[in-house]
Amino acid sequence: MDALAPIVPAPVVLAPAGTPWPANRPRPHDALPEALHAQPEPLGLYLQGLSLADAAAALAQWRAGPHWFRPAHVDPGSPVPDLADGAAPWEEALRVAQHADAIARSLTLDPGALRFDERLLYYLYLREPAELAPVRDRNAKYLYRYPIVEALEQAQEDSGAWLGALVRRNLLQPSTLVDRTRHCRHCASAHLHFLDVCPHCSSIEIHKGASLHCFACGHVAPEADFHGDLGLVCPKCNAHLRHIGVDYDRPLTQFACARCHHAFIEAAVIVRCLDCSAEDDPSALDVREVSVLRLSPHGRAALRAGQLQESFAVLETSNHVVPNFFRRMLDWALATQGRHKELRFGLVLIEFLNATALIDAQGATRTFLMLDELARRLRELLRSSDLTTRTSEQVLWVFLPFSSGEGFAARVRRALDEAQTPEGARLEARLAWVQAPEELQGNVDADALMARLQRWDTE
Q1: What pTM was estimated for this model as a whole?
Q2: In this predicted model, what pLDDT tens digit does every residue of 53-106 receive, in sequence order?
Q3: What is the CA radius of gyration of the chain?
Q4: Which one of 86, 203, 364, 429 is most buried, counting C-beta atoms within 10 A?
Q5: Among residues 205, 198, 206, which one has the least CA distance to residue 270?
C-alpha cells in the first residue's frame, strides 16, 4: 500500500483498504472519488476484491464521470457487473486500456462534448469488436434494455428510441436476433394487455354459453334469452320452440355478449397499453426485433469523419436515389407520357420549415428522434416502386408511379402529427404535389416541373 505508483499512465485501482497489492503497480484507492482524480489521468478502472453491489455502484459512478469511455475490469475472482468490460488479470486490463487510449488519441473528438449517439459509437469504437447484449427486464419500457446504453444516456434521453434510430441509420448493425417484441403505436411501450371482446360492440362482458337458433325467423341468441313461462319462446318472433331439429337447433356458437346479446363463435381481440391506456387492433402494433448490436462499418466511418450530425440523412431509405438519377427518372416518365397517357404518376415535395428552430428550442437529441420517427412512418407509406431524393438538407422529393400525390401528401401530414413530442413540439412542413398527366401544363422537363412545384403552395 505504501509503494509509489509508476509514472506511466495506467488504470486506476479500486480495492478495499488493506488489500495486498504488488509494489510495481499503481497504489490502490479505497474510495472512487479519490480514484477519479488520480494523477496522471487514469487509462481505465480496475476493481480488486469488491462485492458485486460495491463494484456495480463504483462502475455506475465511473460511467457517469469524465472517464466514462475508458475500459473497466474486475479481477478474475470477482463477479462481473453489467457495466464492466469483463474480468481480466491486471496485465490484460493494462494492455486493453493502453490500446483503447491509443485509438482515442487517433480520433479528433472531445469525449466530454459528444451527444448520446456519438458517445455510444465512440464507446464501441474503442472496444471493437465489442457488442451490446440486451438484458430482459419486465420493468423496462421495451421489455429489454442495454445496461451500458442506459449508463451513457443523459437527462431526457430515451436510449431505447435512440438505439432503433441508430440501427435504421445503419450506424449500428444487428448481430444475433434475441427476441421479437410488439409495442404500442402511441407510446412505444411493450407492456400490453390482450382482451377478448364482442365483435359487435367491443364489450368485454362476454361469456361462453349455449345458444339456440330459431328456424322460424333465423334468430340466434343465448339460450337464456329463449326461456319463458311457457317454455322456449323466440324473443324475436315469439314462436314456441318445442322440438329440436324441427323448431330450433343448437349452433356452434360458443360466446354471447351480456351488453348487446350478440352471439358469436370467435371473439375479437383488442390490445390495451398498460402505460398509456390506448386501445388498438393487434395488427396495428409496432413489431421490433431485439438483437445483439455492434458498430457497423458505416458507423465507424461516420464517427471518424465527424458526419453523425446529418439530421435529415435518416430520411434516406432503400427507395432513396441521388438527385441526378431522380431527375432522369422523372424526365423519362414525362417523355413517355407523350406517347402513353396511361402512365400516371404523382410528384410530392416535402420541405421542412422549422427543424433548426426545434434544435435550438429542445436540443438536437429530441429533434433527431422526431425525424427518425417520421422516417419510420414514411417507410411504411412507400412502395418498392416509389423513389425519394433530397435536393437540399431540408427538401425531400417523392416520385409515385401510378399513385396519387394528393393522397400520399395527406398520409404524410398524418405522420407528421403522430411524430410530435408529448410536449406538443412538432415538425412543420410545406407539402406540394402535382398529378400527371392531369395537372401538367405543356411540355416540361424534370427541372422545370420541380422548380414550379417549389413555387406552388398546395398545402
Answers
A1: 0.64
A2: 989 998 998 888 888 999 999 999 888 998 999 999 999 999 999 999 988 888
A3: 32
A4: 429
A5: 198
